[in-house]
């Protein structure tokens, strides 16, 4: 029937998610994410399309994270003008995240162009600007979970809860009809069960073809309840010695998870009512979007929301937008928790908070997730005694704690649980969104469980399907 897949990102790596499906005379894209990591490599990949944007007729998004949506404005600027389908919460998150990403692109390019000018090179344009970001949001059409919709003639889709972040979905696609009809399931990013606020992932529907993420394909992570207990202990002992807890966290998803968790602990009097400051303008805007989408909450969150009226605030939490207000936090001496971006301490206001608090042994730096190589977060996690912040050397005297259980990704055992029911039915399984060894580990286990052809596609690989 002439269906073809083309893997355009998150192939052998964890960023740049984008997979194309050629059906009849046009391409449909699943996700359109930004490549991140080493600047030059990411820049080169972000500027190149494997298929001209004007040849893509529709785009379906799994969720709002930048590595799944961050190139949509560039796609639109490059000539794509088809519909973009996503859940309502994904659209609303994109409406705050894509303009923020455009701002970062515009600031970044100033730095790049200064460097180029010194080398006598001509300036380059940003990847996209705020107008492109708004044009992208205008093309978005929202579809609730579990409601079938037509992507193109002969191609229908359904969103299923992926349990990864607010609005996240796995995408079920029905391609063609009659005897030639085939079903594809694209996992997007799969969340772990029991993750605070959002529902657990729904089981995958039966499918002929599977494209599944494998971020933690080779790893078993600590449970959410163990992580919760450890965070409670860390915050309590820091407060008892009169210190501050500094938490670098991604503005969308991780920050809200931690606020919700701390708010619950304070409400139940399991933690003293010291204030929690959320110091990130993007996190403030994203939190508003969380408030607008109670349809995505799990039972616990819905109940907590009913009893408090505002699960992400209510007295325990101060949201900081203004730079002056952020600076005032540096002078605060009493115990408190400060959550700020970026999650790996590479940019943003968190660096100021670290600079001001890292030398005091009463304080704690709590790293609630994975820290990539060569980042300041990784250096702290590795226990380095001295680190550089804004080109100055600082002695790390604060306690440093890393906790993995709040990860938004399913680990190996959870992925296997999701995939195993498809064994026997799935003709081909493609593992994406993982570093090589993580995907290989999962591929091996799937083959043992009777999955026929399991492969890890390379960037740019085209596969014709029968
Ligand atoms: Zn994600």
Could you please describe the fold and organization of this structure?
The chain is of the alpha/beta class and 466 residues long. The protein has two domains: 3-219 and 408-465, Ribonuclease Z/Hydroxyacylglutathione hydrolase-like (Metallo-beta-lactamase, Chain A, 4-Layer Sandwich), CATH 3.60.15.10; 224-402, Rossmann fold, CATH 3.40.50.10890. Helices cover 33% and strands 22% of the residues. It has 14 helices and 22 strands. It has helices at 39-47, 66-69, 72-77, 88-118, 130-138, 224-240, 254-267, 281-292, 299-308, 323-331, 350-357, 376-381, 412-419, 436-448; strands spanning 3-9, 18-23, 26-30, 56-60, 84-86, 140-142, 149-152, 155-161, 169-175, 182-186, 209-213, 244-248, 276-279, 317-320, 336-340, 364-367, 386-389, 392-395, 399-402, 428-432, 453-455, 462-465. The strands form four sheets. Strands 6-5-4-3-2-1-22 form a seven-stranded mixed sheet. A seven-stranded mixed sheet has the order 7-8-9-10-11-20-21, covered by helices on one side. A hairpin with a 2-residue loop joins strand 7 and strand 8 (155-161). Helix 4 (88-118) runs antiparallel to helix 5 (130-138) and helix 4 packs antiparallel against helix 8 (281-292). The radius of gyration is 22 Å and the shape is globular. The mean pLDDT is 93. The structure holds zinc ion. The site of zinc ion has 5 residues, from loops.
Short description:
The protein has helices spanning 39-47, 66-69, 72-77, 88-118, 130-138, 224-240, 254-267, 281-292, 299-308, 323-331, 350-357, 376-381, 412-419, 436-448; strands at residues 3-9, 18-23, 26-30, 56-60, 84-86, 140-142, 149-152, 155-161, 169-175, 182-186, 209-213, 244-248, 276-279, 317-320, 336-340, 364-367, 386-389, 392-395, 399-402, 428-432, 453-455, 462-465.
């Amino acid at each position: 029937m002439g269906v073809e897949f083309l893997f355009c990102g998150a192939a052998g790596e964890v960023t740049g998610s984008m997979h194309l499906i050629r059906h009849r005379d046009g391409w449909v894209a699943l996700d359109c994410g930004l490549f991140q990591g080493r600047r030059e490599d990411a820049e080169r990949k972000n500027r190149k399309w494997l298929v001209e944007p004007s040849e893509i007729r529709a785009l379906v998004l799994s969720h709002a994270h930048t590595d799944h949506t961050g190139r949509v404005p560039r796609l639109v600027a490059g000539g794509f003008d088809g519909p973009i389908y996503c859940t309502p919460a994904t659209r609303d998150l994109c409406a705050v995240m894509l303009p923020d990403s455009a701002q970062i692109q515009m600031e970044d390019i100033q730095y790049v162009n200064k460097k180029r000018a010194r080398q006598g090179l001509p300036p380059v344009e940003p990847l996209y600007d705020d107008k492109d970001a708004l044009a992208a949001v205008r093309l978005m059409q929202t579809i609730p979970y579990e409601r079938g919709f037509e992507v193109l003639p002969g191609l229908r889709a359904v969103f299923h809860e992926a349990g990864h972040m607010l609005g996240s979905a796995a995408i079920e696609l029905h391609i063609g009809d009659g005897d030639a009809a085939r079903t594809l399931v694209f996992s997007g990013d799969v969340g772990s069960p029991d993750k605070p606020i959002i529902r657990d992932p729904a089981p995958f529907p039966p499918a002929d073809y599977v494209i599944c993420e494998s971020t933690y394909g080779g790893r078993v992570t600590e449970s959410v309840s163990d992580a919760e207990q450890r965070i409670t202990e860390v915050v309590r002992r820091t407060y008892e010695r009169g210190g501050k807890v500094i938490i670098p966290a991604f503005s969308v998803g991780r920050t809200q998870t931690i606020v919700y968790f701390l708010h619950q602990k304070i409400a139940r009097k399991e933690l003293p009512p010291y204030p929690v400051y959320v110091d990130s303008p993007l996190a403030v805007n994203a939190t508003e979007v969380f408030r607008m989408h109670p349809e995505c909450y799990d039972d616990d969150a819905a109940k907590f929301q009913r009893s408090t009226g505002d699960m992400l605030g209510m007295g325990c939490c101060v949201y900081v937008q203004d730079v002056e207000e952020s600076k005032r936090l540096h002078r605060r001496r009493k115990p408190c928790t400060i959550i700020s971006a970026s999650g790996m301490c590479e940019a943003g206001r968190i660096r100021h908070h670290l600079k001001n608090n890292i030398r005091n042994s009463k304080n704690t730096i709590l790293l609630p997730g994975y820290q990539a190589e060569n980042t300041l977060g990784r250096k702290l996690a590795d226990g380095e005694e001295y680190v550089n912040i804004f080109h100055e050397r600082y002695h790390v005297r604060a306690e440093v704690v890393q906790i993995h259980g709040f990860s938004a990704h399913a680990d190996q055992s959870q992925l296997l649980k999701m995939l195993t029911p498809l064994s026997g039915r799935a003709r081909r399984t493609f593992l994406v969104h993982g570093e090589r060894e993580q995907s290989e580990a999962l591929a091996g286990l799937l083959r043992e469980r009777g999955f026929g052809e399991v492969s890890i596609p390379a960037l740019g690989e085209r596969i014709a399907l029968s």
